[in-house]
Each structure stands twice: as structure tokens, then as C-alpha cells.
Amino acid sequence: MLLGCIADDLTGATDLALMLTRHGMRTVQVMGVPGADTPIDGVDAVVVALKSRTNPAEEAIRWSLESAETLLAGGARQLFFKYCSTFDSTDRGNIGPVAEALLEKVGGEIALVCPAFPANRRTVYLGHLFAGDVPLDESPMKDHPLTPMRDSNLVRVLQRQTRLRVGLVPYSVVDQGADAIRAALARAATGGMRFAVTDAVSDRHLVNMGAAATDHALVTGGSGVAMGLPDNFARKGLLKKTEPGWRMSAAKGRALIVSGSCSEATRGQVRAAEAAGIPSFKVDPLAVAQGRLAATDIASWAARQPASRPVLVYSSDEPANVRAVQTELGREAAGALVERELAATAMALVEKGFTRLIVAGGETSGAVVGALGVRAIEIGPEIDPGVPWTRGLDGRGLVLALKSGNFGAPDFFLKAWDLLE
Question: Which of 24, 41, 255, 401 has the least CB density, counted as fewest CB within 10 Å?
Fold first, then answer.
């Protein structure tokens, strides 16, 4: 193993594993803190998928450090802490506390910070994170039900989360290339900075950023930063790159879409699927809470639908409706309730012969994969930027597309199946 990665949610881990695979590293993704029996041998990179983005900071730190211990013991020469391209966090964490703990663990002098992913229109300019053409705090992320982002200035956001000093490597430096970035990071470290938010508005910036961090013990960022890391190992003669496949074989079986994300992108994908005639079932959290709806009811409905088409089960809803449910049930309770019901539905349908699953939403993906007992996956072809098909390594032949809520084109639920054979 050359690169050990720790991601704070499942879909973010898959996004990162895809990026590393695309750039030539044999990569395995494992679910949860790896143990002694976790299959991490014989690969170039291991990505640990934690469900720690919105957990208590102390728990996120503990899981991340335990994962780091296993990765370092397995030979990892560099650690990568992956978080969302929208820097999902609150003033109490968890990005800052986890990054601080990992930096101390590896004895790093400084770590760059960059969630940019230009392919999905996430860019950083003068320390401000943009979603498309607007600052993050003017985007729909300002109303995220768990991590509302009300400040686009990442230097300020991160400084509120950590005791360590946070600096900035601005666009004027980044645009000069890897050597300029490397020198700026060294100057920042000399000046007492331990984290450096680094601007990026193009893939070229991210590749150069990765090259600049070749000797850093810890790198933090979105998956975009990782596109520059494999070449570092190749230049040192440690990595022989591999070519990814463009299609994935899948066992015979029915197709299921499970959507728990309430992001604008996923809501649009749900509308497109319904408009295309895909049978759909909208889960009412209040009906579940009141005992009027159960996973067995949803699974029975899905099993009765024509086998020739995918089936869509979703709880995705407009922000006002989500807030109303949260007011009734409590924010955390409402989220946990929906995750459990969607996961139970997926498990029941896998038992009925559904083998091809798209799951939308990081929390939902974590719940579904946990319920199905999938412990490790291999990475397949990319459907849309940041979202690949994957296959479970447990012998059952399940193929899974685990999609971040914000990712994917409007027709994602329609076209993904074309990459399976």
C-alpha cells in the first residue's frame, strides 16, 4: 500500500476511490474502521469509508485515528483525509478536529486544505468556496438539513474548528504551478501555519497541488486533490499504473434506486425518473413514525412492479417539507428514521432478487451498505463525475452506485444501467 485514505462518509469515499482508480492506482474501498481481517493487501491505495461527517467530533476523531493506525501499519507512505466538495461541517467540526488529530498522528508540519472539484463546479478562490457561480453560503447548501453552510470563507470556517493556525495559498500563487505552491506551503509552515486553504479553479491547479504535496505526511481535501497524487508515487518508481475498465459485469437480477438525499441535484434526478415512467414510491416519514408504513410494505410494492424496469423508492423532498418533518420528529430522529427504513427496504429487496442498486445520499448509502453487510468494494466505470459503479467483494455479486446527493446529471437514474453488462 502506498496511499491510505480516510473519508468522512461513504459516497465521498467512493468518489475518492474512483479518482485514484482513474489515475492508475489499484484501489479497494472498505466500510468502517478496518480490522485485522480487512482485505487491504495487494493494492496501491485503500480508502476507508467512515460514517463520521455528522457524528460527535470525539467519535469521528477516534474512528479516524484507529483507521490511520491500521493504514500506517499496512505500509501507507502518505495519509489522505477526504471530505465533501462542499466542506460539509459545522463550527464544532468535524473537519477541523479530525484533520488536527491526523496531523498530530503523522507528525506533519503542515497540510493543505482544498475541497475543490471543478468537474462538479466546486471551486475555491481567495479562500472562498463556490458552488457553481455563487459562493457556498448563497447556494442551496445554506439550507442543508444537517450541515447548513452559512459562510463561504474556508479560512474562517476551518479556524473556528481548530486550535491550529490556518493560512491561505491564493490563486495568484497556485496559478504559477507546483513549485510555487510548494514554496508557499513551506513559507506558511515557517510562519506557524499548520493548515493552508489552497485555491483551485481548474484540474490543472489540483494536479499541481498534489505534486506540491508529494512529501507531506498528510493531505486533506476533496477527491479532486487526489488526481495529482498517483504521479508522485510513479515518479519515485513505486507505482506501475493500471488502466481502469469502462464497463462492469453484473449478476442477473432486478434494479433498484433508493434515494434519501434531499439535495437539489437528487430531487431533479427523482423528477426525471418519474417523468420517464419509472415506478416510484415516496416514503412518508410521518407515516413510518406513526406505524402506518413499514419496509415490508414498500418491498412488497416494489416486488409487484414490472421486472423490466428499475424501481425507485425515495424520501427526497423539498426543504420546507423536510423542516416540517424535523419539527415534528426532531432533526436527528427524522434522519435516522428514514435511513433505517430505506436500509430495511433495500435489504428486503436484495433478498427478493434485486442485485443492482443505486443509492443516493451519503447517510443513506452508509445505512444501506451497513444493512447489507458489504465490507469492501472494488471500483468500476464512472457514471458521472465522482460516481462509479462498484461491486461488493463478498461473493454475492451485488453492484452498487453510491451517489453523493449533490452529484450526477438529471438523467443519472436513467443512464447508469447502460454501463452494466
Answer: 41
